[in-house]
Each structure stands twice: as structure tokens, then as C-alpha cells.
Design goal:
By secondary structure, the protein is α+β, with helices and mostly antiparallel strands. The chain has 2 domains: 124 residues; 50 residues, OB fold (Dihydrolipoamide Acetyltransferase, E2P) (Beta Barrel), CATH 2.40.50.140. Helices cover 57% and strands 18% of the residues. The chain has 7 helices and 5 strands. A hairpin with a 2-residue loop joins β1 and β2. The chain is elongated. It starts with a helix and ends with a strand.
Length: 180
């Protein structure tokens, strides 16, 4: 099933931009309590940056694999996982409202870029494999290998297919090639 990448990216952008409002509200509240700003000014800020990088990587995987990394494809707006994580990191990094909003804008931009890269990775794989035919080399428990365009690729199937049969890649689910 081909995904509408442009529509998905527009949805992602709307969700990410909607974080400005909670960022302003929570950033204002947190920056007015000295405990939080004092606690997150020290070395813990570096831990927050490491967590932010992890969230960016998870966001990339969610976008590339159609959101199965965390959601198992059950959540219709998978960007929410990364979005909430990144919003939380931005709020925790808030020293004052200006730097809080600036942090969120930078992190949101990085989040959007990671999702664009992930979706482009999916699109490239889809364009490279879906619709291509080849010969099934081996199969066991619905997982096997097929020779597609002189390339040995790992394939999956929902049906019983005999070895040495001609197969066609019909779908990419998560990061797996499915054949019939």
C-alpha cells in the first residue's frame, strides 16, 4: 500500500507546530519556579540533549517504518510519540520563556527534518522494490529469500508459496518486503 508522503508531512507539521501553545504555557509556568530552572541548568542539560537525539532517531524510525517502532501501527498519528517527547525535553530545558520557545522551535525543526528523512527513506525503498518480480529461493515460517533483480533480499509472505516460484513484491510493512 503506497503512502501519501506529502499528506503525512503536512499532518506532521501541523502537529509539531501545535506544540508552541503548550510550550508557551508550561514554559512560562516552569520558568517562574526557581527549582526547575536551577535543577536543569547543571550537567543534566547534557542528558536532556542526549535524550533529544534519541527521540530524533526514534522519530526517523517511526516515519521510515510507518510508525511501528513504538505504536505497532495502532496509533493513527504516530508523530505524537516523538512530538510529546520533544515537547517535554524543550519544556525541561526552559530557563525563561524566550529560550524555551526558541529551544522548542529548534527541536521541532530537527524533529520535522528527521521525519522527512524517514519518509524519504521509505519512499526510496518502496520505489526500488514494490512491483519487482523474482524467484523465491527459500522459505521457512513465512520468511525467506528471493532473487530480485540479481539481488538476494529477505522477503515475507502471508501465503504458502513454493520454493522456485515467481514472486512479486507487493507491499512494505514496517521495514519488511512482502511478496505474493
Amino acid at each position: 500500500m503506497k503512502r501519501d508522503i506529502k499528506k503525512e508531512l503536512k499532518r506532521d507539521l501541523v502537529i509539531i507546530l501545535s506544540g508552541i501553545i503548550p510550550m508557551i504555557v508550561f514554559g512560562y509556568l516552569i520558568s517562574n519556579y526557581n527549582y526547575f530552572t536551577t535543577f536543569f541548568n547543571g550537567h543534566i542539560i547534557y542528558i536532556l540533549y542526549v535524550i533529544a537525539v534519541g527521540i530524533l532517531y526514534i522519530s526517523y524510525l517511526e516515519a521510515r517504518d510507518n510508525d511501528p517502532f513504538v505504536t505497532g501501527k495502532t496509533q493513527t498519528l504516530g508523530v505524537n510519540n516523538s512530538f510529546i517527547g520533544m515537547l517535554t525535553i524543550a519544556i525541561l530545558m526552559t530557563k525563561d520563556i524566550k529560550t524555551g520557545v526558541l529551544n522548542y522551535i529548534i527541536l521541532a525543526l530537527l524533529l520535522y527534518i528527521s521525519r522527512v528523512l524517514g519518509k524519504n527513506s521509505y519512499k526510496n525503498k518502496y520505489d526500488k522494490y514494490v512491483g519487482k518480480s523474482g524467484i523465491l529461493i527459500d522459505i521457512k515460517n513465512n520468511k525467506g529469500h528471493a532473487l530480485i533483480d540479481d539481488e538476494n533480499v529477505v522477503v515475507y509472505t502471508d501465503k504458502d508459496i513454493a520454493v522456485d516460484s515467481e514472486v512479486v513484491i507487493t507491499d512494505i510493512r514496517s521495514n519488511y518486503l512482502y511478496v505474493e
